[in-house]
Give the backbone structure.
Amino acid sequence: MVVFTCNHCGESLQKPRVEKHYSFQCRRPKSLTCVDCFKDFKNEEYVVHTKCITEEERYSAKGSIPGGVVKKGEVKQESWTDMIKSIVQTETNMKPSLRNLFNSISNYSNVPRKKVKFINFLKSSTGGRVNFDDIEAAWGLIEKHKNEQNKNNNQENGIKHKLNGDSEEAPANKKKKIEESENKNSEDDVFSFKGTILKILSAKGSISCKKLQKKVLNAYLKETGNAEYTEKTIKKYNKKLKKLPNVVISDDVVSLVTNEQ
């Protein structure tokens, strides 16, 4: 049978008790959370919620459904439960009443992940016998460990991205790497501005300065594997172009002059 938690007082309610609860106890607009799937319901929305987890899902491997498909909500809740259990082991200076509270809630697998619902849940599960200061302290420790966990996860993800070579680099670092690559790939290496310029001019005879520069620099990027070129690359190209013999630049057109001409 579906069981709900009242979001006003935290009492656990089987479905048939909902109407009576809001008619004679809370006397507020209905606000419920299913203890199995953690879905929220307002007013009469809960009526159609008759079954949220099938028997096969409930008794299958934890966090999975037939076929091995992991249920995202259950994985998150399992991680949340594991974190609460770890607090009992790592926080050695807790006062006895707070430690007893953590020992109690670590036995539950459906501890809410939101503060208001967490408070209501503790009031309900302990029969209202828990000190509110201990509840606040418990939530504070959970928030502390959650933030540390998120920080560690972010750092691990950053390391993985770097290892996979898909991290975003700062513009300054990116530019530095490009310049280092340019220095390693000198003009006299396998790829050279001179050879590419002459090859293009031999095929075309004449070509506009703009088109020639584009073709040569594209060839440079392909050869070096760089994603882009810098102003330094362009200056090197123009310097080499002007020094080439038998090459004439006139009216923004570059031409190759042969001995026969």
About this structure: The mean pLDDT is 77. The chain has three domains: 1-52, 63-165, 184-256. The chain is about 55% helix and 10% strand.
